[in-house]
Design a protein that fits this description.
2 copies of one chain form a homodimer. Chain A starts with a helix and ends with a helix. Chain A is an alpha/beta fold. The first copy, chain A, has 12 helices and 10 strands. The interface between A and B is large, with 52 and 52 residues.
Chain lengths: ~270, ~270
């Protein structure tokens, strides 16, 4: 197990939680008291982080929500805040990057050198060499899209390739061939519980990052039942349900209670 | 044909060129006179643009080369510079984005609202709904990765799905089903000439963005022979070969001559 997976694993055991809080700041949904404030997004995320860290094994900012608004500096500050105040709780930068090798080197620089994220999400469509600039960083985590949580995920991912669906072929390549540094996990949506179950049966030692509970309608309890493993790792990610639990001045408390309720459901699996 | 494809098509006919100059500023390769200059990247790209526009149908900045260095403002300035000085020559932002719908909305905002790009590259792995935020913008161009130019491209893209390789299934879905606004093209690497030929035979009306000539060893002449079409469109992209043709104070002139030589090869196909 590499240092990223070790850190997150220890955090999970201490707090009895699989919960990853997704940090997706949409300006249209910010709580009312923050509207028009100069540091609205940073203050919002800082308060959410402080309110939910006790129940979370990691945080996962989604880079598009910062890039759309030109908030790169805020993203930098958010990651630095977590690293400084909560060094036990790593940061996965959700970026789903993929490009030819020379360009992926630049994306890896963006994610790991500029933003100093502990892990990243990437897309496998272009093959192993396109992801090597990420996976060669032994102390970082790399989550490769396998079976995603969106409605159209199966359009290509479920196509039969050599008698098995593409997502299975991707999982096998990634975990059996690419994972020489033991730093790669898979993204598997909670909206696809049967696929999650089948992947867990085939890969008991793998790490799965599971988005799609809450707003995307994935069943959290089922995701834990199917996704947990003694030998492997499981991370359950929730963004909107936690972030936008409240709209008024008590929003952080509402987010805290939502995260706490999710962790309550999780702790019996430890 | 949508307004983006129409613009690029007119520019191609006027200049007798398929050439797209890729703008991938690597700080390690900048010409010597620019080293340490405060606006080195913008000045470099401005001079490259001015030197090569006469032979180019479009420009294609790759966003990772700006994001790695925190040069978002430079990217904004570069795109604005092209739009203001050369309105006949559109800008494709090479970003290869892909995510669930709500997040892709933010990526589309990044590409089209923030940077005001005329077109974008995207990754199809997550299916139609993941790209709809891009493709619904009728006046923009969207190039979907099909058969990429990197060495490991075939690892998944050439897997047999329903008796045909995955990249063919992607092409068919994208062009026959998703392309309701006639604004989608495919990315097909010049390093895969047989696949390019086969795709052109099946899709004579489609637009292909073809990277991989030059530093990636794709054969430009073959790419044009196999990729050109009376009814469809072809864009041949070259980055490093043009950008880094010179290292000294005459770098822009060297880039110009390289672009001109490529256009000389292209013009006989018009």
């Amino acid at each position: 197990m590499n240092s990223f997976f070790k850190l997150i694993s220890e955090n999970q055991k201490t707090k009895k939680t699989f919960l990853c809080v997704g940090l997706d700041p949409n300006l249209n949904f910010l709580p009312k008291p923050l509207t028009g404030q100069p540091e609205a997004v940073f203050d919002f995320l800082k308060n959410i982080i402080d309110a939910t860290e006790e129940f979370s094994c990691c945080f996962k900012p989604q880079i598009a929500y910062f890039a759309a608004y030109g908030l790169e500096d805020t993203l930098l500050k958010v990651i630095e805040y977590v690293h400084t105040k909560y060094p036990q709780t790593p940061v996965i930068l959700d970026a789903k990057r993929n490009d030819i090798g020379t360009t992926s080197e630049m994306y890896a620089m963006e994610v790991f050198s500029r933003y100093k994220a502990d892990a990243v999400t990437v897309n496998p469509y272009m093959g192993q060499d396109s992801l090597e600039p990420f996976t060669k960083q032994k102390d970082k985590g790399v989550f490769v899209l396998c079976r995603t949580s969106n409605p159209g995920a199966g359009e290509f991912q479920s196509l039969k390739t050599n008698e098995k669906p593409l997502y299975k072929t991707v999982a096998q390549k990634v975990l059996n061939t690419w994972n020489v540094n033991n730093n790669i996990g898979l993204v598997v949506g909670a909206t696809a519980p049967e696929e999650l179950k089948s992947l867990r049966e085939e890969f008991p030692e793998a790490w799965f990052l599971v988005p799609g509970v809450g707003a995307q309608s994935g069943d959290m309890n089922l995701a834990i039942q199917y996704g947990k493993s003694e030998k492997g790792g499981l991370i359950i990610s929730s963004s909107r349900t936690i972030l936008y639990a409240g709209k008024n001045s008590d929003y952080a408390d509402k987010s805290r209670k939502t995260a706490q309720a999710m962790q309550e459901e999780m702790k019996c699996f430890f």
